[in-house]
Amino acid sequence: MNRMKNLSILVSLLATSAAHTIFQEMYVDSVSQGHLFGIRTVQSSNPLKNVSSPDIICNGAVNNFTQNPAADVITLPAGATITTEWHNKLLGLDPSNPDDPIAKTHLGPIQTYMAPIGDIYDTDVESLEWFKIYQDGVTLNNTWATQKMMTAAGKVTHAIPSCIPSGTYLLKAEIVALHAVGDTGKNVEIFTECAQVNITDGGNAALPGFKFQEGYTPSTPGLVFNVYTSPPNLDYPFPGPEVFTC
Questions:
Q1: pLDDT tens, position by position, 92-144
Q2: What residue ranges define each of the domains in the chain, with the CATH number in brackets?
Q3: Cβ atoms of 224 and 188 closer than 8 Å
Q4: Considering the entire predicted model, what is its pTM?
Q5: Neighbours of 230 (CB within 10 A)
Q6: Which of 75, 119, 197, 212 has the fewest CB within 10 Å, making it most exposed?
Q7: How far apart are CA 63 and CA 43, in angstroms?
Protein backbone atom coordinates (compact mmCIF):
# COMPACT_ATOMS: atom_id res chain seq x y z
CA MET A 1 0.00 0.00 0.00
CA ASN A 2 2.78 2.43 0.93
CA ARG A 3 4.60 1.55 -2.30
CA MET A 4 1.50 2.44 -4.34
CA LYS A 5 1.08 5.68 -2.40
CA ASN A 6 4.71 6.63 -2.99
CA LEU A 7 4.33 5.82 -6.69
CA SER A 8 1.37 8.17 -6.99
CA ILE A 9 3.39 10.91 -5.27
CA LEU A 10 6.27 10.42 -7.70
CA VAL A 11 3.98 10.55 -10.73
CA SER A 12 2.43 13.81 -9.54
CA LEU A 13 5.89 15.29 -9.04
CA LEU A 14 7.48 14.13 -12.25
CA ALA A 15 7.31 17.59 -13.78
CA THR A 16 8.73 19.42 -10.76
CA SER A 17 12.06 20.62 -12.09
CA ALA A 18 13.10 24.06 -10.83
CA ALA A 19 16.68 24.31 -9.61
CA HIS A 20 15.57 23.58 -6.07
CA THR A 21 15.78 20.61 -3.72
CA ILE A 22 13.80 18.27 -1.45
CA PHE A 23 14.92 16.12 1.49
CA GLN A 24 13.57 12.73 0.45
CA GLU A 25 15.52 9.87 2.00
CA MET A 26 17.21 9.12 5.30
CA TYR A 27 19.92 6.63 6.18
CA VAL A 28 20.69 5.22 9.63
CA ASP A 29 24.27 3.99 10.04
CA SER A 30 24.56 3.92 6.22
CA VAL A 31 21.35 1.89 5.75
CA SER A 32 18.62 3.53 3.67
CA GLN A 33 15.25 3.68 5.41
CA GLY A 34 13.45 3.87 2.07
CA HIS A 35 12.60 6.57 -0.42
CA LEU A 36 10.17 9.08 1.17
CA PHE A 37 9.82 6.74 4.18
CA GLY A 38 8.89 8.65 7.33
CA ILE A 39 9.28 12.10 5.74
CA ARG A 40 6.54 14.72 5.62
CA THR A 41 6.59 15.22 1.87
CA VAL A 42 5.50 18.17 -0.26
CA GLN A 43 4.58 18.31 -3.95
CA SER A 44 6.69 21.35 -4.79
CA SER A 45 10.40 21.96 -4.32
CA ASN A 46 9.88 25.72 -4.30
CA PRO A 47 11.81 27.63 -1.62
CA LEU A 48 10.27 29.25 1.43
CA LYS A 49 11.04 32.98 1.40
CA ASN A 50 8.87 34.33 4.21
CA VAL A 51 10.93 33.65 7.34
CA SER A 52 8.06 34.91 9.50
CA SER A 53 5.81 32.10 8.27
CA PRO A 54 5.43 28.86 10.26
CA ASP A 55 6.01 27.07 6.96
CA ILE A 56 9.77 27.44 7.50
CA ILE A 57 9.55 24.87 10.30
CA CYS A 58 8.54 21.74 8.36
CA ASN A 59 7.40 23.25 5.05
CA GLY A 60 3.67 23.73 4.52
CA ALA A 61 0.52 23.94 2.49
CA VAL A 62 2.18 26.54 0.25
CA ASN A 63 4.10 23.64 -1.31
CA ASN A 64 1.20 21.18 -1.16
CA PHE A 65 1.78 18.42 1.38
CA THR A 66 1.23 14.89 0.15
CA GLN A 67 2.31 13.26 3.42
CA ASN A 68 1.50 15.35 6.47
CA PRO A 69 1.94 13.48 8.64
CA ALA A 70 3.87 10.64 7.04
CA ALA A 71 2.44 7.17 7.58
CA ASP A 72 5.72 5.74 8.84
CA VAL A 73 8.25 6.39 11.60
CA ILE A 74 12.02 5.87 11.38
CA THR A 75 13.41 4.07 14.44
CA LEU A 76 17.05 4.61 15.37
CA PRO A 77 19.23 4.55 18.49
CA ALA A 78 20.62 7.64 20.14
CA GLY A 79 24.18 8.17 18.92
CA ALA A 80 23.49 6.74 15.47
CA THR A 81 24.96 8.30 12.35
CA ILE A 82 22.35 9.60 9.94
CA THR A 83 22.42 10.79 6.37
CA THR A 84 19.82 13.08 4.87
CA GLU A 85 19.59 12.86 1.08
CA TRP A 86 18.45 15.76 -1.09
CA HIS A 87 17.57 15.88 -4.77
CA ASN A 88 16.13 18.31 -7.29
CA LYS A 89 13.21 16.00 -8.06
CA LEU A 90 11.52 13.37 -5.93
CA LEU A 91 12.75 10.71 -8.33
CA GLY A 92 16.07 10.66 -6.51
CA LEU A 93 19.57 10.87 -7.97
CA ASP A 94 19.68 12.06 -11.59
CA PRO A 95 23.25 12.35 -12.96
CA SER A 96 21.88 13.81 -16.22
CA ASN A 97 20.32 16.77 -14.38
CA PRO A 98 22.81 19.64 -13.91
CA ASP A 99 20.63 20.99 -11.09
CA ASP A 100 20.68 17.78 -9.06
CA PRO A 101 20.85 17.82 -6.08
CA ILE A 102 20.50 21.64 -6.23
CA ALA A 103 21.57 24.43 -8.57
CA LYS A 104 25.27 25.22 -8.29
CA THR A 105 24.44 28.87 -7.65
CA HIS A 106 22.64 28.03 -4.40
CA LEU A 107 25.27 28.75 -1.75
CA GLY A 108 24.57 28.50 1.97
CA PRO A 109 24.62 26.50 5.20
CA ILE A 110 22.95 23.22 6.06
CA GLN A 111 21.47 22.55 9.51
CA THR A 112 19.54 19.82 11.33
CA TYR A 113 17.16 20.32 14.24
CA MET A 114 15.11 17.98 16.41
CA ALA A 115 12.06 18.49 18.59
CA PRO A 116 10.37 16.08 21.02
CA ILE A 117 6.77 15.43 20.04
CA GLY A 118 4.31 13.42 22.12
CA ASP A 119 2.13 12.35 19.19
CA ILE A 120 4.38 11.71 16.20
CA TYR A 121 1.42 12.25 13.88
CA ASP A 122 0.54 15.67 15.28
CA THR A 123 0.76 18.34 12.57
CA ASP A 124 1.09 21.27 15.01
CA VAL A 125 4.78 22.11 14.75
CA GLU A 126 4.59 25.73 15.95
CA SER A 127 4.26 24.70 19.59
CA LEU A 128 7.33 22.43 19.54
CA GLU A 129 10.63 23.24 21.27
CA TRP A 130 13.54 22.64 18.90
CA PHE A 131 17.25 22.07 19.43
CA LYS A 132 20.00 22.04 16.82
CA ILE A 133 22.16 18.93 16.35
CA TYR A 134 24.20 19.89 13.28
CA GLN A 135 25.38 22.88 11.29
CA ASP A 136 27.84 23.36 8.45
CA GLY A 137 28.58 26.73 6.91
CA VAL A 138 31.61 27.94 4.95
CA THR A 139 35.21 26.69 5.08
CA LEU A 140 38.41 28.71 5.08
CA ASN A 141 38.73 28.11 1.33
CA ASN A 142 35.23 29.58 0.79
CA THR A 143 33.45 26.28 0.18
CA TRP A 144 29.85 26.28 1.37
CA ALA A 145 27.95 23.34 2.88
CA THR A 146 25.70 23.20 -0.17
CA GLN A 147 28.75 22.74 -2.39
CA LYS A 148 29.93 19.83 -0.23
CA MET A 149 26.44 18.34 -0.51
CA MET A 150 26.61 18.63 -4.30
CA THR A 151 29.95 16.80 -4.32
CA ALA A 152 28.43 14.08 -2.11
CA ALA A 153 25.55 13.49 -4.56
CA GLY A 154 22.99 15.10 -2.28
CA LYS A 155 24.02 13.46 0.98
CA VAL A 156 24.69 15.13 4.34
CA THR A 157 26.00 12.91 7.15
CA HIS A 158 26.30 13.54 10.89
CA ALA A 159 25.54 11.97 14.27
CA ILE A 160 22.51 12.04 16.53
CA PRO A 161 23.53 13.07 20.07
CA SER A 162 23.95 9.97 22.24
CA CYS A 163 22.49 11.54 25.38
CA ILE A 164 19.06 12.65 24.17
CA PRO A 165 16.12 10.86 25.81
CA SER A 166 14.33 8.00 24.10
CA GLY A 167 11.05 8.93 22.47
CA THR A 168 9.45 10.38 19.36
CA TYR A 169 10.87 13.44 17.62
CA LEU A 170 10.58 15.41 14.45
CA LEU A 171 13.92 15.79 12.69
CA LYS A 172 14.13 18.92 10.54
CA ALA A 173 16.70 19.02 7.72
CA GLU A 174 17.28 22.56 6.45
CA ILE A 175 19.18 24.33 3.68
CA VAL A 176 19.48 28.13 3.77
CA ALA A 177 20.28 29.35 0.24
CA LEU A 178 21.81 32.84 0.24
CA HIS A 179 22.58 33.31 -3.46
CA ALA A 180 19.79 35.86 -3.98
CA VAL A 181 20.43 37.96 -0.87
CA GLY A 182 23.32 40.09 -2.15
CA ASP A 183 23.45 43.45 -0.40
CA THR A 184 19.68 43.73 -0.09
CA GLY A 185 19.03 41.44 2.87
CA LYS A 186 16.09 39.96 0.99
CA ASN A 187 15.14 36.81 -0.88
CA VAL A 188 16.73 34.19 1.36
CA GLU A 189 15.50 30.76 0.22
CA ILE A 190 14.85 28.03 2.78
CA PHE A 191 14.41 24.38 1.82
CA THR A 192 13.23 22.06 4.57
CA GLU A 193 11.31 18.91 5.36
CA CYS A 194 10.80 16.97 8.60
CA ALA A 195 11.25 13.27 9.24
CA GLN A 196 9.35 11.39 11.93
CA VAL A 197 11.76 9.47 14.15
CA ASN A 198 11.64 7.27 17.23
CA ILE A 199 14.82 7.37 19.32
CA THR A 200 15.74 4.26 21.33
CA ASP A 201 18.52 3.56 23.86
CA GLY A 202 18.61 7.21 24.81
CA GLY A 203 20.06 9.12 27.72
CA ASN A 204 18.66 11.62 30.18
CA ALA A 205 19.92 14.97 28.91
CA ALA A 206 17.87 18.09 29.53
CA LEU A 207 17.12 19.50 26.10
CA PRO A 208 17.15 23.21 25.24
CA GLY A 209 14.18 24.75 23.47
CA PHE A 210 14.03 27.09 20.46
CA LYS A 211 11.05 28.45 18.53
CA PHE A 212 11.49 29.46 14.91
CA GLN A 213 8.83 32.16 15.07
CA GLU A 214 11.01 33.95 17.63
CA GLY A 215 14.50 33.08 16.38
CA TYR A 216 14.18 33.43 12.60
CA THR A 217 13.31 37.00 11.56
CA PRO A 218 13.82 39.14 8.43
CA SER A 219 16.80 40.76 10.19
CA THR A 220 18.51 37.61 11.51
CA PRO A 221 22.16 38.03 10.42
CA GLY A 222 22.51 34.49 9.08
CA LEU A 223 19.49 34.99 6.83
CA VAL A 224 20.66 38.29 5.30
CA PHE A 225 24.28 37.30 4.71
CA ASN A 226 26.03 38.36 1.50
CA VAL A 227 27.99 35.43 0.03
CA TYR A 228 29.55 37.56 -2.70
CA THR A 229 31.75 39.99 -0.77
CA SER A 230 35.34 40.49 -1.90
CA PRO A 231 37.35 39.27 -0.14
CA PRO A 232 34.92 36.55 1.01
CA ASN A 233 33.44 36.94 4.48
CA LEU A 234 34.11 33.58 6.13
CA ASP A 235 32.65 34.56 9.51
CA TYR A 236 29.14 33.23 8.91
CA PRO A 237 26.65 33.77 11.78
CA PHE A 238 24.44 30.66 11.81
CA PRO A 239 20.74 31.34 12.39
CA GLY A 240 19.18 29.59 15.35
CA PRO A 241 20.73 28.37 18.61
CA GLU A 242 24.13 26.80 19.23
CA VAL A 243 24.51 23.13 18.36
CA PHE A 244 23.46 20.94 21.30
CA THR A 245 26.21 18.68 22.62
CA CYS A 246 26.17 15.99 25.29
A1: 898 989 999 999 999 999 999 999 999 999 999 999 999 999 999 999 999 99
A2: 2-11+20-223 (2.70.50.70)
A3: yes
A4: 0.91
A5: 5
A6: 119
A7: 6
